[in-house]
Design a protein that fits this description.
three-stranded antiparallel sheet; 51 residues; 3 strands; Arc Repressor Mutant, subunit A; alpha+beta
């Protein structure tokens, strides 16, 4: 289950995006994410479904 949780950096690399672009997608609600202690986290399964 822990391997299913990704950071902004992980998602940016996975989607081959710049980290700033990833932050913009998250801020606009276009990519599924949640916050843990002020840091964005992503479930890999959610990202795969989003793609």
């Amino acid at each position: 289950m822990l391997n299913d949780i990704l950071t902004i950096k992980d998602v940016a690399e996975y989607l081959k995006l710049n980290e700033k672009t990833t932050y913009r997608l998250v801020a606009s609600g276009k990519i599924p994410a949640f916050k843990v202690g002020g840091a964005w986290r992503f479930r890999q399964s959610d990202i795969n479904n989003w793609i």
